[in-house]
Batch of 4 targets.
Target 1
Amino acid sequence: MTVPGDGSPDAAGRFLAVDSGGSGLRVVVGEVGSGRRSGPLSSGEPVRTGARGIDPGHFMEQLVPMVRALVDQAEVSEVGTAVIGAAGLATLGDGLRAELPGALAREFGVRTVALAADAVTAYAGALGARPGAVVAAGTGLIAIGTDLTRWRRADGWGHLLGDCGGGAWIGRAGLEAALRAYDGRDGGSGALLSCAEEQFGAMAGLPGKLYPRSDRPAVLAAFAPRVAERAAVDPVAAGILRAAAGHMAESAVAVCPATGEPHVALTGGLFKMGEPLLVPLHEELAKRLPHARVVPAEGDPLDGAVRIARDLAAGALALPCDDVMLSVASPKGQGDHF
């Protein structure tokens, strides 16, 4: 994006949008009026968490050089609006809420900061400012919905307590079926046992390879595509995906507005599995949410952060704000919500 110095809009017309997740930061800058935005820069390193949750110091260490590179390329010096979408913000975001507005003001002249849970930016990217529900599924799973007056969320509780139907859940169920076949118990799948042995080696060594891993959810999720591969020929694998679809639909029902014609969208890498998962999921959604309209997701969480930034800078933000899911503050009043 090139913005000539003599024709550049003032800082209020420029925005910064950030998507912070398990694979690091993705960052763009852009203009509100022209619709232009830079290509994204990516860090490739997740932001650390500490005693106060997401580490604001580490966040800024990564963010500052990326934003400086983008604003230098755009030949601007200040950015008026910043939207930060962050995984874990709802439960681990106290440090970011306390420190980011001031830090962004000092570094880039930011006047308005929105901090959003990654589920909110996923929603905004998929549906914009329409009532409905979004199921975001990758390694984990969360559903989020709104009637444009408040947010509702379901699941997203992690691989030990929830994320039902997500990649780690499917992978764990597939490995359980493999171990059942290994033991000779009912409910096992010889097809999945073969897949598991190809991927992990001898089943007797699987617990030692899995339990000590700090990235255990990702390891479990890595087996989910093997379940999808076998679903067409293995009834156990197909049953796992039908169960996953049921869990996803349950979460969508829990957050979807009960009146009107809300839109429902699916977003996240898990849906790249295609028909083995999508066919039973669409069947479940049609059965459980007959008043809703299932639509394709229009964009991803970074697109959602951009949408929120443009609406916020234009004074047209229609998504609901609260203290957890989406909060808007000025650096001089870091707890003041507009």
Note: Confidence is low (pLDDT under 50) at residues 1-9, 333-338.
Target 2
Amino acid sequence: MVRTGSASVAAGPTLAVVAREAGVSVPTASKVVNGREDVAPETRRRVTEALDRLGYVRRPRFDAAKSSSLVDLVVHSLETSWSGAVLHGVEAAAHDAGLEVVVSAGLPRNRAGRPDRGWMDKLTARGSSGVLFNLAELTSSQYGWLDQQRIPYVLIDPDLEPPPGVVSVGAANWQGGVTATEHLLALGHERIAVVAGHQRRMCSSARVAGYRSALAAAGIRQRPEYVRHAGFDESTARRRTLELLDLPEPPTAVFVCSDHMALGVYGALAGRGLRVPDDISVVGFDDLPEARWTTPALTTVRQPLSEMAATALRLLVRMVEGDRPESTRTELSTRLVERASTAPPRD
């Protein structure tokens, strides 16, 4: 497996030590560790705090030979079409593999920033074979707990560069940025701006890097004022678009690094009485359902979200079976989906 902890992990405190620290019996401490319900709330609180304070590592650890037909999927939210595509991909791949999926929205943390003990106990109690994470970011303590427990896990589209050895699946974001920009250049645009996501996120920085590379390859001067970051937020994208429109020489086209932000760009342009693509062309990124519902329909770079999720599930199954992936990073290709939001610039 990849990143499943060192060959030997420090033994740590015993359950008897935890029980003594919390002032309870060993059987009571065991009930809390195993997620039993017949424990008073105050007693559970004392035991949980002792577990966290002492760094207790629950035994037995995961064993692929004894693993169940369950896998866990932890997503940032269940309310977005992005999450819907991820769920669809995991569900289809899990069905083919004969697995069932337990879905959680978010990974709770305690005040110390460690994984919430309740979620950890439930995960170990149900004997899940492994975990897929489609979250903004895991903390170092969460990585550490997963490694200590030797739980196989795969990251789907991680925000930050994962620690060495962590398996992840994502999209070819740099190439997607190149493709979007080249499409606008081919239409005759030279004043091309980009509304990007978070500066620290891998996908956002890669898309902006692709945009810059395409401009450089075409011999087009890169304008720093044409690069605006909106944190993947629709309302912030609206404001950044207004800033671009207020420049002495506004862009004739905008590459927006997510379809969700493109909605904000559309709103800003409509508020200024500008038409897409007659007055300004717009290219998005993701190819979410919203891209087809907008008016005009959004030209966008499709990243295969469901395929990414399915690939992650298949990698997880291999890891559970003890097969180390050849590479810790898998990237699936992106492609341009042309619709009605782009056209040659007006004379």
Note: The chain has twelve helices and twelve strands.
Target 3
Amino acid sequence: MDILHLHWPDVFVATARPGRAKVKLALLKAIIGFAKLRGLRVVWTAHNLKRVGQRNGPLMTRAFWPAFIAALDGVIYLTESSKLIASRDEPALARIASAVIPHGPYEPPPGARLGDAPTTSPILIFFGSIVPYKNAAALVKAFGELKPGTANLWILGKMSVNNPDLDLEPALERLPADARAHVTYDNRFLSEDELASSVRAATLVVLPYREVLNSGSVIYSLSARTPVLASRLPLFDELAEVVGEDWLTTYEASLTGEILRRALDHAEHLKRSPANPNLEPFAWPTIARQTAVFFSSLLKR
């Protein structure tokens, strides 16, 4: 073994109870230190940087991130925009060897959402852990501007315990009764089959994020051949150039009912067409080759 490749090292420490966080941090440091003594290169795939509201935040800022970044020999970013943002927010990362290697596609199974009766109305879906930066309340507000019965809205995901989105439930409560009747809010972790079939059954995935470094949700949705509407951020603009702007459309400023309506019309047409998003650059064999080349370059240093 020549490479120690880490994906979510911060989660290992951040999810620990406060009394155990320092123990987990010491264990992680010991593992990395032992790897360095053995001559291994330490590589990190940077899915996320420092997350607001993360448990054990002060410890992470003071003791985890500086030591972890200092130990790195290489970093894999999933997009060019995430590399730029990471280097801006954490200048020490800019001095570490890096490569941009995208996230691979998923293969969700076909089918309608488990446990739900079929519906003839189009379906808007928001999925994943619910935290403030994902801005789910903006989608709820815009949904309330649609003519009742125009669409159904599914919000599928567990509300964060450590960093809850305090705007979502009040936004749901403010919806008129005729709009609220078309909303499903499933506050739990869905099984893989439930999530996959839900995304495939949806007409349009909506990601009204305020900020984001990477988004597996886009690739997940497009793997299910479900179009995506997202806020105008560098990451989404970069991905849209690759997968096709028909499949990943972005909007400026605030999300509105009119933007949703136009995106729904477009998504319905797209799903009926024989077209497919361009996921060829995300093929796993290509990613494997790119990763091997990067690892080889590190070992030659």
Note: The mean pLDDT is 90.
Target 4
Amino acid sequence: MTVRAAVIGLGDISALHLAAIELLGDVELVAVCDVDADRAAAGAERLGVPAYADHRELFAVEKPDVVHITTPHSEHAAAVIDALDAGINVIVEKPIARDPQQAAAVEAAAERSSAKIAVCFQNRYNTPVKAAKELLESGALGAISGASATVIWHRTPAYYEAAPWRGTWEGGGGGLLMNQAIHTLDLLRWLVGPVSSVAGTASTRALPIDVEDTAELTLTHAGGIRSVFYATNTHAANAPITVDIIAENGLLSLRDELTVTYADGRVETVAEETLATGERAYWGVSHERLIADFYSRLDDPEPFWITPADGARLVDIIHEVYRGSYPEQTAQLTRNGVHQ
């Protein structure tokens, strides 16, 4: 049976979702949606499907089986909740919502709905990351004693000017932590364990934006394990993301590949097995893997394994830092609530 899919939001990241849908032989794109009329019309012409300005109208008319939500952050929660309440399965880009209040509303919608939902923490599908997870779970490295991670990247004023919501609290719910570093925070939480407390600061050091471009965090995980995290968008270039995990029997280091250095001197490496090609190759193949996996599990009675709770906990962690660093801005987001 052919699965009917729709994409809501035709910004940059939608290209990965559209490409992944095209690769799936039993999935048909039936509609797109964007509040920008010109972008919606261009998408409809390019893809050969109807375009809508309102996702609710799309749901009512097209009745898709799955929707991909790739809108600005502030629009995630309303579209996800409406889809779940309509019984439509959802793949939503990170973050799951702009703020903790919206994230909690999404969690509640998922609990009352029979539809499935996946949050795009696609880096979990990278071959080196999967190998790291399997090794840690095998017990071969012994107990984890600590971890560190960095995201040292480059963004220009033009990047924010191209999509002005990115540099705002109202549109993005934050900056570096919500838009770039959230993926690496997810990896720390997934590989090291749930986070029980967080201390940190976020600040706007160099870029002409309202939200943070630099942050440092100390996370306490289950069992008292501590990890430290540094991220910035003010570097001169995009450096490789790093995740280092110290365990009793060795050191696990993620860069572009996984390197495991055992206490007895052995060294093992795991590289990405499939390299992306084309204009957006720098985003890798992990979106494609996540999306294919989600569709393959639509008939599975269990919820999808990357859950709304995963997404909500990341938003909670980030906003714990924001509340100390930007108290007025985060208080305003809370007062604004969930926009339907």
Note: The CA atoms of residues 103 and 303 lie 17 Å apart.
